[in-house]
Amino acid sequence: MANLQQIKQVAAQLHLNLDNPNSVREQLKGINQSLVQLHKLRQEVNTKLQNLNQPNQAFGLDEAAAIGLHLLGKHGVARQVTRQGNRAERQEKRQQNNARQPHIKMKNLIDNYVFEGDRLKLMAQNYLKEQQSKEK
Q1: What is the DSSP code (8-state) at residue 17?
Q2: C-alpha–C-alpha distance, residues 74 and 68, integer Å
Q3: 38: number of CA atoms within 13 Å, CB side?
Q4: Is the pTM of this model over 0.85?
Q5: 3-state SS assignment for residue 19
Q6: Residue 117 CB neighbours (<10 A)
Q7: What segments bear the compositional bias annotation Basic and acidic residues (predicted)?
Q8: Phi (first) and psi of residue 2, to 5 degrees
Q9: What are 43-83's pLDDT values in tens digits?
Q10: Which contiguous run of DSSP H or E holds residue 98?
């Protein structure tokens, strides 16, 4: 699983110094490698988020009990059982949402670093084009 330290290590490799074309080409290779690593980390985070998003769609005992109580004419008790089940479901959804938040923040951080890498990549490519046109 991707962690914040791995993301920051890869992001630290995203730098560009426009000094000479050969150096810029080497830096561009490093930027591309960093972007590939960031995309892999993002896939890991997305996989974890998908696993967390899997709903538990099981027909619970509380629902079965409520149906049975309704059939027996115990409607008040059945409503109480249903309310307790609904309350438990809401609590579980809140816990799932809280578990997703760090992964969502990590995904957003990776997206920002990918955006920065793409920006540096474009700057390097533009620099190389300018240098090439000056040579002609």
Answers
A1: -
A2: 9
A3: 26
A4: no
A5: coil
A6: 23
A7: 86-95
A8: -65, 140
A9: 999 999 898 877 666 666 777 777 887 788 888 888 888 88
A10: helix 75-135
